[in-house]
């Protein structure tokens, strides 16, 4: 599998570079999973092809960002000294200072934070944003009694003899867990995500302590036709249970992200509980909301495990709930390594069976659910995919190599444990067979001969071959196209008098019916001739005419269009199927100077 070779080569080189730059901040090995998932992301960004030079420069940059985020030293803080020198600051500057005391301007109710640079005596005053008035009043004899570390952004300078800072609401107070344990347990650690999800927080002041699990990419959000907002979703996980929730920030509020990072523990004080479109509870930042960062050593029990694929004992951290966390695991994990009660398990494998959608009702909501069988060279396993991941699987085919990130496994139930792919646990599935970038990149793919592919005599072998189309065949007896369910591209079947798709477990409306090409192609590379099937999108790429235009032509024109394609050369990603059948999973134009098969064949015919 060419992709595996790419990962291995990248892994070896990146980790070798590490060895030779030991003096640099990066000392940890870059994990196999990290490379696999970042390579796939890169491949998706470069569908027309990529070189190792680009891969390494992009990954090096990512690694630097990643290690900086991990060490929290990537953030450059603005200094108070600079304000006195320049009298201005960028709106995007981040300050990391000590809040020494809170003063009140005489004869007003305006509060002022007296801020001091860490490691120097330089101080400046900031007018306090009114959102803090309530908490200052409430906690003046507890939290604000001592100096506190605060980080903030989006402030401006009032110039003058004694410059001051304008109020900003984008302030995060940082508390050391041990030093402030009394205040934290009494005032901040009041409930859990569980309580919020189960409606146990009526008429109470809401304050939860959570861990930031994932800060997602900013999206455009349209609450209605005329409004457009930037939206940031932050996945937060409970510190008392496995539950997660989404916290949303909009437009300017997104500035908070500069002060936060994955893995931070934060207290969210006074968030607004709301519902998303799917009626799921979410949290919003609102005028009264305050974030307090809690610096806490994560309780880390390390388990020493013997994994079948590894020669040495592995140290796997266990989270607060006794779940083994594989997120930092260095090497490739295999199916034989899987065990109960784990999370963040990432596997590279091949699909060998895809079940039908088998939805179940949980909490009055229908949850899509699909079982698949996957294999690698250590075994075969069943996985259950939920919700959108199940729907994503409907378009996948047996034989696809996939990389699945962040699976979780259950505890033992009747002598067995279950493997689940759940979006909320950050599970993602990537299809590797159809990655355009690999087939388009000479340095990442190896070209095989059709004769080699034929001689493999095995199902689910995937190879790239450079060949010429020498003919086409109707896959169905009567026509060159068929009617299918748009979701899964399966041919329609009649069920109880209505159109029903067994695979998707859903009725089919008229607008869900699409026409798709049903053409097999005969290809030749000079070593052998194969008949290969292709799904409609591949055939569209070969023919260059969309099915909706094609199907309205008369029979002669249709045949002419197809006959015109004979002689065209492509590189095909081909998967072997049972009964000596073959399927094209991806395709690209060849680089003519390198592989001129057409001339080669002509010479011999
Ligand atoms: Zn369907």
UniProtKB/TrEMBL annotation:
Gene3D superfamilies: Nucleic acid-binding proteins. It comes from the Eukaryota. InterPro entries: Cdc24_OB1 (IPR035201), Cdc24_OB2 (IPR035200), Cdc24_OB3 (IPR035203), NA-bd_OB-fold (IPR012340). Residues 4-109, 116-239, 337-565 form the Cell division control protein 24 OB domain. SUPFAM superfamilies: Nucleic acid-binding proteins (SSF50249). Pfam families: CDC24_OB1, CDC24_OB2, CDC24_OB3. Coiled coil: none annotated. This is Cell division control protein 24 OB domain-containing protein. It comes from Piromyces finnis. The lineage of its organism: Eukaryota, Fungi, Fungi incertae sedis, Chytridiomycota, Chytridiomycota incertae sedis.
């Amino acid at each position: 599998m060419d992709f595996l070779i790419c990962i291995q080569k990248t892994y070896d080189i990146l980790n070798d570079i590490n060895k030779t730059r030991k003096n640099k901040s990066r000392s940890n090995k870059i994990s196999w999973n990290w490379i696999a998932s970042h390579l796939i992301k890169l491949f998706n960004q470069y569908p027309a092809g990529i070189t190792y030079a680009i891969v390494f420069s992009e990954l090096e940059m990512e690694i630097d960002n990643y290690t900086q985020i991990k060490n929290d030293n990537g953030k450059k803080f603005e200094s108070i000294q600079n304000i006195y020198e320049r009298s201005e600051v960028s709106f995007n500057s981040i300050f990391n200072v000590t809040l020494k005391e809170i003063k009140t301007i005489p004869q007003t109710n305006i509060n002022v934070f007296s801020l001091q640079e860490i490691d120097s005596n330089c101080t400046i005053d900031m007018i306090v944003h009114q959102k803090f008035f309530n908490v200052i009043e409430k906690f003046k004899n507890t939290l604000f009694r001592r100096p506190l570390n605060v980080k903030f952004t989006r402030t401006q300078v009032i110039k003058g003899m004694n410059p001051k800072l304008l109020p900003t609401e984008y302030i995060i107070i940082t508390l050391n867990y041990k030093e402030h344990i009394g205040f934290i347990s009494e005032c901040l650690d009041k409930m859990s995500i569980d309580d919020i999800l189960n409606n146990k927080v009526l008429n109470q002041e809401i304050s939860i302590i959570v861990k930031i699990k994932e800060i997602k990419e900013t999206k455009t959000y349209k609450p209605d036709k005329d409004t457009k907002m930037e939206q940031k979703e932050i996945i937060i996980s409970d510190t008392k249970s496995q539950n997660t929730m989404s916290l949303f920030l909009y437009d300017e509020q997104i500035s908070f992200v500069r002060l936060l990072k994955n893995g931070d523990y934060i207290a969210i004080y006074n968030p607004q509980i709301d519902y998303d479109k799917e009626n799921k509870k979410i949290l919003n930042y609102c005028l009264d909301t305050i974030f307090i960062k809690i610096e806490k050593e994560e309780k880390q029990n390390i388990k020493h495990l013997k994994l079948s694929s590894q020669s040495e004992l592995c140290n796997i951290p266990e989270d607060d709930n006794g779940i083994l966390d594989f997120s930092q695991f260095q090497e490739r994990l295999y199916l034989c390594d899987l065990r109960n009660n784990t999370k963040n398990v990432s596997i590279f494998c091949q699909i060998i069976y895809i079940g039908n959608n088998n939805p179940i009702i949980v909490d009055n909501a229908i949850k899509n659910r699909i079982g698949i069988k996957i294999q690698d060279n250590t075994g075969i396993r069943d996985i259950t995919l939920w919700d959108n991941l199940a729907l994503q699987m409907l378009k996948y085919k047996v034989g696809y190599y996939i990389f699945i990130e962040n699976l979780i496994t259950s505890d033992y139930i009747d002598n067995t444990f279950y493997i689940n792919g759940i979006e909320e646990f950050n599970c993602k599935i990537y299809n590797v067979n159809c990655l355009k970038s690999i087939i388009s990149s000479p340095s990442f793919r190896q070209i095989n001969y059709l004769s080699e592919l034929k001689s493999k005599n095995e199902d689910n072998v995937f190879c790239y071959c450079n060949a010429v189309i020498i003919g086409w065949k109707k896959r169905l007896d009567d026509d060159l196209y068929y009617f299918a369910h748009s979701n899964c591209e399966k041919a329609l079947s009649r069920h109880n008098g209505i159109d029903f798709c067994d695979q998707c477990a859903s009725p089919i409306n008229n607008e869900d019916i699409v026409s798709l090409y049903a053409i097999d192609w005969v290809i030749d590379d000079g070593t052998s001739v194969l008949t290969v099937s292709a799904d409609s999108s591949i055939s569209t790429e070969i023919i260059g005419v969309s099915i909706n235009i094609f199907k309205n032509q008369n029979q002669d024109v249709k045949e002419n269009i197809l006959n015109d394609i004979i002689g065209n050369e492509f590189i095909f990603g081909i998967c072997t199927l049972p009964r000596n059948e073959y399927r094209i999973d991806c395709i690209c134009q060849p680089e003519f100077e390198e592989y001129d098969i057409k001339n080669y064949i002509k010479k011999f015919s």
